[in-house]
Amino acid sequence: xxxxxxxxxxxxxxxxxxxxxxxxxxxxxxxxxxxxxxxxxxxxxxxxxxxxxxxxxxxxxxxxxxxxxxxxxxxxxxxxxxxxxxxxxxxxxxxxxxxxxxxxxxxxxxxxxxxxxxxxxxxxxxxxxxxxxxxxxxxxxxxxxxxxxxxxxxxxxxxxxxxxxxxxxxxxxxxxxxxxxxxxxxxxxxxxxxxxxxxxxxxxxxxxxxxxxxxxxxxxxxxxxxxxxxxxxxxxxxxxxxxxxxxxxxxxxxxxxxxxxxxxxxxxxxxxxxxxxxxxxxxxxxxxxxxxxxxxxxxxxxxxxxxxxxxxxxxxxxxxxxxxxxxxxxxxxxxxxxxxxxxxxxxxxxxxxxxxxxxxxxxxxxxxxxxxxxxxxxxx
Length: 380
Fold this sequence. Notes:
Order of helices and strands: HEEHHHHHHHHHHHHHHHHHHHH
Strand order of the largest sheet: 1-2
Structural class: mainly alpha
Mean pLDDT: 91
Helix content: over 70%
Strand content: under 5%
Number of helices: 21
Distance between the termini: 58 Å
Shape: elongated
């Protein structure tokens, strides 16, 4: 199983010390044979220090303290070089000492979570799903702990760590729903992950499934409230998806009813403008792009789209004026190519050459830029 969060746990390995158990040592576990070269086993520093202070260090190196530290390092680093040997050790312990590793890892994770040691809680439950990758409850608990750590990273203003924890939680919740399609709480939490990623259609479908499966009354009411509040966002996502699929009229059927309530939502106006532009209703498209620019005068994509509308109506001087303004705000190869082709269209070959060559310098592999160079070559 792959994890995106290992790097956040690796510093916890500093809390472990390693000792070597030799093949001929007195330490024995029935069903487990120490390798000929010996075995480097971990022990938690706190156990070692306590043993030294109390003169019980040797006694502290028992099978349970070693097993606990092995589980800990597996949870920290699933690729640790001795993990395969540690798994053999744990299996022997389970079979011959009646040690239930799965229950132990679950218990330790809950224990640390309850006292606020969330990173340790994550390590134990991560070890659990490393050893038992299809443990549905373990995967769910792992996702919940990741979400809690994401909240802590948010408070620390560490956006990257927060995002990684949330993505990790979302991935594992998806696995839970695949393994157990009746796990209602997994759908409930997963809905928030899609919502926070602005995937409103997915969030709607997932929350509706959670309601079908059955949730506690308070949680069900919360989900119903969320569905009501996100209606417009779902309509917007469905609308712009249809526009990007080339279904412009169907997209507008979804988007236009939203305009009255969200007249200052520039993203909505932009997609409506795109739809009209692609339907060759250029004047209507220009109205929407101009409205956006009255609200956001430096919205580059809107400036470019308005310029393309002007070019479509053969207002080349106005198109050039707009594209020059866009290029000053953002030196982008696509903008520069459009500007170069506009100059080419009015017979200004020097400026056309300058902007297309600059676009080529920025991205010599761009297919549109290469095509523009070939077209320019016919004239210069």
